[in-house]
């Protein structure tokens, strides 16, 4: 009996934790850090997921909300019982509401991004966009752009993600790519730009570009076969084979001495769910290799086999990558 008591106590504790999360998230709907902490808690163990809902599938969670909202207390229930039923939803109701709330917070920023962009791609989607000036832009998955053209110049804002450009020459109207605080000015070229939380990556396949640092202290010119990783306090130039620029267009990531964290960031836009990465070696461990982006689970498995990384499948839509 003591064993059953311990199990019941653990379930009760997880139920209290889940309820506490619901209250916090409801009080601070715009708190991005809190949202990330919640997802991290949710992914810690299957028991945490079970505290929110019995089923793994997002579609099941979303469909459960409809009838739960429509249900009313039975006529035979006393007024006091009806009040209690309204005030204290079932565990299943709380689970569905909390997960729906979490998913909505991820959906709202996406809808806002749609309103700002001229073109946007979804998970695992590649798209080729022809601009009015004759330039061509290849969009990687989960990428958004906005384009404007005037008599003085052409400007494309990379709102999110990564793109490869083949720019039509027009000396009188320079072409600029704005990615966060960085501006890439085209000097006649084909190149790629990737926007990250930490800064901007630029790789040149043909021709030249000029990249302005975020602080505006200098202008860095890149030629074919050169790449630049730019952040607020650091600029790292390196060499790259021109035929490997924007290899994601072929559905592969060619990695050369990058951190495991960077490799996972390459895989995320192709995965139809969430990948949570953790562990002391996430940023310090360096890897090289070729990864199949079109089959993201295979890419994670290849990373695990070659570099002693653990990949846990918590649900059909959630993977936890642990790096020792």
From TrEMBL:
Transmembrane among keywords: yes
Entry annotated with the keyword Transmembrane: yes
FecR protein domain sequence ranges: 120-209
Transmembrane segments: 94-113
Keywords: Membrane, Transmembrane, Transmembrane helix
Top-rank taxon: Bacteria
Residues covered by the FecR N-terminal domain: 17-57
Protein's name according to its UniProt entry: FecR domain-containing protein
Organism: Novosphingobium rhizovicinum
Lineage summary: Bacteria, Pseudomonadati, Pseudomonadota, Alphaproteobacteria, Sphingomonadales
